Structures are given as C-alpha cells and as structure tokens.
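Please, structure for the following, as tokens.
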Amino acid sequence: MSTSILSVRVNDNERSLLETAAKQAHTTLSEFIRRKAVESAELEVMERRIVEIPIALWEQFEAWLDAPTKKIPALQRLAASTPVWEK
C-alpha cells in the first residue's frame, strides 16, 4: 500500500497536547494523529444520516423495497429465542 504526506497546521498548545497524548499511547506523534484522524473519519462516515441514491438506480431501489420478504431460517430462530439477559 502506498502512503502520502498530509500536512496539518496546529498551534503550540495543540501540538503539546498531541505530543503528550501520543506519549501516553506509546506511539509516535505521526502515528497517533493518523490513527485518531482515521477513527474520527470512520465515525463521521458511519453516522451519516442522509443516503443519496442516484436517479439511474432509483427504480432498482424501489423494486428492492417492493419485493416480497425473504424468510431466513437462522433469523427466524434467533427472533424466537430468549435473549441471554432474560434467562
């Protein structure tokens, strides 16, 4: 996998805080910032509330919604079972 450089500007207080956090995490400043930035980006993408469906795929999406439900035996057994916390 190739990598590239991403430059970020921070003030002295922010840099000091980031360096302290990286030391506490026993990692380099660069690795700490990369890992936290990626974690934050993943959360941002996962929490997206608006879903965009291209017009070209809209009819296909509606057909999927209108299709009869599929019976999945494993899910039916799971739904019929008593949850562990209720036993």
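The mean pLDDT is 95. The radius of gyration is 23 Å.
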